[in-house]
Specification:
single chain; alpha+beta; 25 helices; about 20% strand
Length: about 750
């Protein structure tokens, strides 16, 4: 086969190299024409680039003009004083017309009322009759109509009957505006039309058209010079007729009528280069002709050797060295060919991702050699099951891809997936060990899901992720709801990362009181997140996403740092902070905890770390060591949600927690379950016998508080005593509980 490829390579070399001589001579013969053509093309390209830059700079100035208007247009007072019932032209004169001219140099400012009639006109900061604006208003009428329509469309009706003005959520400006060009004093001018709306009071009782602010900036020589500098052009000026100028740009008003031209001096780089390098190019052409003969001889000798090595390299480049299967590139090529030749009569095309479950555990426990053998055995099993015409590839460490063309129905694909799962139900014998290896499989189908390779691969990957999230050892076909779930998860993860980075998360504190509810002993820090676009997001939603995306450690450190900084203002109170199992198992947890306390100057004895039983899920010995290190630092440790786990008593026996927090489910049952009181008393007595403080959380009624007051419970926590409050209201909560709260009165009764 190698010899055949070599002969083919020699014939190919002869077919290519001999015509090269003719091509070189032809290239030299036409070099002059090509150089001239290239020069002209370069001049045209440079002109187009200059025109594009000038247009972009003009648009930027229009947006800047709208941004300058925003301070006067998006303002509660402007909204108030431009309304018919509260119109004040004196106020508009000093706060709009004169202000825009003094601060930004607006040559003219015009305000239209909600009916589109002019009520104010200012030229260079001085009031003029509104009748002078008739010509201007006619020219820019499309801009005015567009702004009024957009403003009316931005009203959203609320259930209360009020209307809420929906503004652009992001961008250079927050105002609703339209920009364009017009004529002012016979010269082209920039114009921006912005709806006058409220800044803070966005809730209105009626839906109606807005008052409109119009601003103009004449393109005088100074502003033209600024445009020229930003665009990198020379000699920019405004003319009524370009008179055949090579470098010009037409200006049109909102009604698409021409109002003038901008002309400038073109740079013509192609012509300049032609004059400079012409002799050099002629010398190079002669040199190329001489070197061509030498290259022909050298290339002919090497082509044969390259053809031989190419045959070997091509196979290696398209196949996986460990398994001999096709690799990612080969799979992609086959995929493209199948899609290019697909027709309705050829049936369905299945795209399947296969992933070995918990493969990392095999590498970690048995070593990489055993892991490689598992991959080879998995490849052998899959190869046996793959039908003729299908493409099986290894695309990453423990991930395979299967392309199934010509499938009659989805059921046939499911049959293939079932055969694969059944084959892997048989354990592998690797290195003297019987290993039970399960698979997670995700599938997408063409043409139902898409006819784009990128989309089909992406959707198969989404289905694979869904299969893993559903418990592994199973398969899943792509469904549109999966994509929405992934998109929502990615958007939340991205927003959460930005919220952590930009300090946009909030921390509130729920007091823990004495048994009579009159004195606050400690506070528990609770994380809150309100996103500008998504609104209030529950911790039960974003904390699992933080766990999945690796953000949980940053999130936990954020809460710990904020809580320590806030609690510095309450030196007489303790501070409780929840730590997730993932954060607790982080290798730098102890260092991060110590560094945070030192950076905040926070006394460790005031801090209490709350953990749940799930921290013991993997390695009890290592977790107990970390808990001991935490206590050695002087930080107290509480076992949260006590009573709901199957082995709570076992953990109490092995580790001396400082505090037990009784799960709120026991408190909720006090008024309905006949044995709840006895169980609660038993838990409290257990904590007392072990020398631990006992905190009852989730107290929501007076009756629950009175029952607990008759026990040996140490602390109470719940909405009945106090809802979580911001740091600034801790003192208020203390004062209310100590002297004025209904809780204290009820418990003493």
């Amino acid at each position: 086969m190698v010899a055949t490829r070599t002969d083919t390579g020699t014939r190919l070399a002869n077919a290519i190299l001999f015509p090269v001589v003719g091509l070189v001579l032809l290239a030299i013969a036409f070099s002059v024409a090509l150089i001239v053509y290239t020069s002209r093309s370069a001049d045209i390209a440079a002109l187009n680039s200059e025109r594009s830059l000038l247009k972009g700079s003009t648009n930027l100035q229009l947006e800047l003009l709208a941004k300058e208007q925003e301070g006067a247009a998006v303002w509660d007072q402007s909204f108030f004083y431009s309304r018919p019932e509260t119109l004040s032209t004196d106020w508009l004169d000093s706060n709009v017309g004169l202000w825009l001219f003094s601060n930004y140099g607006h040559d003219q400012a015009v305000i239209l009322d909600i009916h589109g009639r002019p009520i104010y006109n200012s030229v260079r900061g001085k009031r003029h009759p509104v009748e002078e604006t008739s010509g201007l208003l006619e020219d820019i009428e499309p801009l005015i109509a567009g702004v009024r329509a957009r403003f009316i469309a931005s009203f959203n009706r609320l259930p209360s009957g009020l209307y809420y003005i929906e503004r652009p959520p992001s961008g250079f400006t927050r105002s609703l505006h339209e920009t364009g060009m017009t004529v002012f004093e016979g010269v082209p001018a920039l114009v921006s039309v912005t709806a006058i709306g409220p800044e803070l009071k966005q809730f209105l009782s009626a839906r109606r058209a807005p008052a409109v602010l119009i601003s103009l900036k004449k393109l005088d020589p100074a502003r033209l010079q600024g445009l020229a500098e930003r665009s990198g052009v020379r000699g920019l000026r405004s003319v009524a007729d370009p008179d055949g100028a090579f470098a010009s740009m037409e200006l049109r008003d909102p009604r698409n009528a021409p109002i003038g031209y901008l002309v400038w001096q073109a740079q013509n780089p192609g012509s300049s280069i032609l004059y400079g390098v012409g002799p050099v190019l002629f010398f190079l052409a002669a040199t190329i002709a001489g070197l061509t003969g030498l290259v022909l001889y050298y290339t002919r000798q090497n082509t044969r050797r390259l053809a031989e090595s190419e045959a070997r390299a091509q196979h290696a480049a398209l196949h996986d060295s460990l398994t001999g299967l096709a690799n990612r590139d080969y799979f992609a090529t086959s995929f493209r060919e199948e899609l290019a030749s697909w027709q309705v009569g050829k049936g369905l095309l299945g795209v399947i991702y296969i992933d070995l479950d918990h493969f990392k555990d095999i590498n970690d426990t048995l070593g990489h050699a055993a892991g490689d053998e598992v991959i080879r055995e998995a490849a052998r099993r899959l190869r046996v099951l793959v039908p003729e015409g299908a493409t099986l590839a290894r695309i990453s460490g423990d991930e395979f891809a299967l392309l199934l063309p010509g499938c009659e129905s989805r059921e046939r694909i499911e049959q293939m997936l079932k055969r694969i799962q059944d084959r892997f139900a048989v354990p592998m014998y690797i290195g003297g060990n019987h290993l039970h290896i399960s698979l997670s499989v995700g599938a997408a189908i063409a043409p139902h899901d898409s006819l784009s390779m990128g989309e089909l691969l992406r959707k198969a990957d989404i289905a694979l992720y869904s299969a893993k999230a559903g418990g592994r050892g199973r398969w899943a076909f792509f469904d549109a709801c999966m994509e929405e779930h992934v998109r929502t998860r990615e958007n939340l993860a991205h927003a959460l990362r930005e919220a952590i980075t930009n300090n946009r998360l909030g921390v509130v504190y729920q007091p823990q009181t004495t048994i009579d509810g009159t004195k606050v002993l400690s506070v528990e820090a609770l994380l809150r997140w309100t996103d500008a676009e998504m609104g209030v997001i529950s911790p039960s939603t974003f904390v699992p996403i933080a766990e999945e995306t690796g953000l949980i450690n940053d999130l936990g450190l954020y809460v710990l740092r904020r809580a320590c900084e806030d609690a510095a203002a309450w030196p007489h109170l303790g501070l409780a902070v929840n730590v997730s199992p993932t954060q607790f198992r982080h290798p730098r947890f102890i260092e991060d905890l110590r560094d945070t306390l030192e950076a905040c100057g926070f006394e460790p004895s005031r801090l209490e770390i709350e953990v749940t039983e799930s921290v013991f899920a993997d390695n009890d010995i290592d977790i107990l060591k970390i808990l001991t290190q935490v206590q050695d630092m002087g930080v107290r440790v509480a076992l949260d949600d006590f009573g709901v786990g199957y082995s709570s008593l076992s953990y109490l026996r092995r580790f001396p927690f400082d505090t037990l927090k009784i799960d709120r489910s026991f408190i909720a049952d006090l008024e309905v379950a006949p044995h709840a009181h006895a169980i609660l008393s038993t838990i409290i007595d257990l904590g007392e016998a072990l020398g631990m403080k006992v905190v009852a959380e989730g107290i929501e009624t007076r009756q629950q508080a009175m029952i607990l007051q008759r026990t040996n419970c140490d602390r109470l926590q719940g909405f009945y005593l106090s809802r979580p409050v911001p740091s600034a209201r801790i003192a208020e909560a203390e004062a209310r509980l100590s002297g004025e709260s209904q809780v204290a009165v009820s418990l003493r009764a």
